[in-house]
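Entry 14. Structure prediction run on the chain below.
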Amino acid sequence: MLKVLKVDNYVLIKSLHFSPSEGFNIITGETGAGKSILIGALGLILGERADTQVVAESGLKCVIEGVFDVSKLGLKSMFDRHDLDHYDETILRREILASGKSRAFINDTPVGLATLKEVGGKLVDIHSQHQTLQLGNQAFLFDWLDTVSGVNQITHTYSKAYSELQQAKRKLESLQSEVDQQLTEQDYYQFLYTELEEANLESLSSSDIESEYEVLQNAEEIGEVVGQSVQALQDDEGALLGRLQEVGHILSKLKGGEALTKIVERLLSVQYELEEVASDLKSFGVGMQPDPERLTELNDLMSKLHLLQTKHKSQSVQDLIAIRDDLEAKLSLNVGREHELERLKESIQELTNTCMGLANELHEKRLSRIPNIEKQANGDLQYLGLVNAELVLELQQTEALTPYGVTAFQLLFASNKGSVAKPAHKVASGGELSRLMLILKSYLAKNRKLPTLIFDEIDTGVSGEIALKMGEMMSSLSGNMQIVSITHLPQIASKGNTHFYVYKQLDEDKTLTFVKELNDTERVQVLAQMLSGENPTEGALANARELLN
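Output returned:
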C-alpha cells in the first residue's frame, strides 16, 4: 500500500506530499491542473524511463520518493534475491538530474531500473487511458486469463519449458549453420589435408633435399676432382703421403733428443690423418656417380615443397605440418558436431513433448474456467448498464506451440442482442471499453492481490447512473486493496473515502501544481462545481450532499 508520495522539482511541482488512505481515494481537479503529472511521478519510482524535461529547475535535481507498506505482501525472498534490505515500510526513490542522469534506490540501496520495475510491479498497478489498447495485446490477454483462471503455476512451468525449447532450437540452428558451412568447405579441406598427408612431411627436409640435389647435380665434376685429390695424396709418383713417409723415415734416424721425437710423432699423426682422408675421399668418390633418376626425384620433391609452401603461404616444412594438423582438427571437429546435432535434436524432441503435454493441460484448464468467467463478466456488464452486451472468451486449440501454449485467445464483444461478437478493442465504444477495462482490471487485482490499484480516468465515455455504479464497483474493490481513481465525474468522486484536489496557482510569478486533501465542506463545494460549474447553485450543492450521503 502506498503511504506517502513525495515529489520535489518535477515538472510543475515544486514540493508535494501525497498521503492516500487505505481505502478508496479520489483525485479530481481542472483539466491541466496536474493530475496526470502526479501519476507520472509515481510511474518513475515504479521503473518508468525518465525524460530530462521533467526537471523543473535545472539547477536542482528532481527527487521522487514513495513509502510503501509491504508487511503483508511476502516479498522478502525477492528482496533477498536482489540483496536488498527488507523493511515493513519500504522506500522507493528516484533522482533525476537536468543532464539526464538518473539514479534509483530501494531502501537506500542503489538499483537498476529493471529491479525497480520488478519490485514496483508488486506494489502498484496503474491503469492509464491508453491501456484499453491492451485488449488486442496477446501478452496482456493471456496474463489476464491465466491470472483470473488460477492457472499461473502451470503457465509458469510451461513458459520455462518453452523458453528452454526455443533456446535449444536457436542453438541447433546455429550449430546446423556451422556444420553446413563446414560441409561446404569439407571437400576442399579434405583435398588439402590429403595432399599434405601424402607428402610425408615428417621425412622431408628442404635443406637436406637441396643439399643432395646440389651434390648430384655436380657429381661428375666432384668425382673427377676427388679422384685427382686421391692421386695427389697417395697414388701419383711423388704423392704427398709418400713424401711424408720419406721425411718421417729420415727424421727417425736422427738422435735429436725428446724435442725431435715429438716432432716425428706429430708428423706420423699427420700422416695417419691424411691416410684416413685419402681413404674417405676414395670411398666418397666411388659413390659419386651421376644418378639421373634420383636427380629427377629430388627435383620433383623440391618443386612439390615449393608449390605447397607457396599455396599455404608457409616458410618451412614445420609450417606445413602445423597446417596439416589444423586441417585434421577441422575435419574431426565436424564429426563431433554431427554427434552434438543428434543430441540436440533428441533434446528438442523431449522438450517439445514436455511443452505439448503442459500446453494441452493448460488449454483444458483454461477452457474449464471460461463459463464461470463469462457468466460473472456478463453479469457485471449488465450491472454497469450494458444490459444486452455479451462478452465472449473465445479459445481455440492450435497445432503449433506458441509462447502461450496451444491456445488462440480472443476477447470478443457484442453490444446488442443478436449481434455477432467481434474483437472488443475493434468494436467497443469508448464508454463500453471503460466499463470493460474496469471489470477486467478488478478481476486481475483480486486474483493477483495487488496492494494498490490506480485508475487514471477509466470513466471515459460514461456518465450518470453508470458512473455511479462504476464508483460503487471501485468502492467495493477498496475493501480488499487501496484504490486511487483520477476522475472527472462527481458520481465516482462521491464514492471515495478520501478526496484529493489538484490545482494550479502562481507562486513567485511561476505556475505550480499543488494537491490538498478536502474536508467535508470543501468536498461538497468541489462536487457541486463538478456538477454545475465554478459557481455552483444551491441545487448543485444539495445534489452534491445527496451524492455523498
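DSSP finds 17 helices and 15 strands in the chain.
Filed with the rest of this week's runs.
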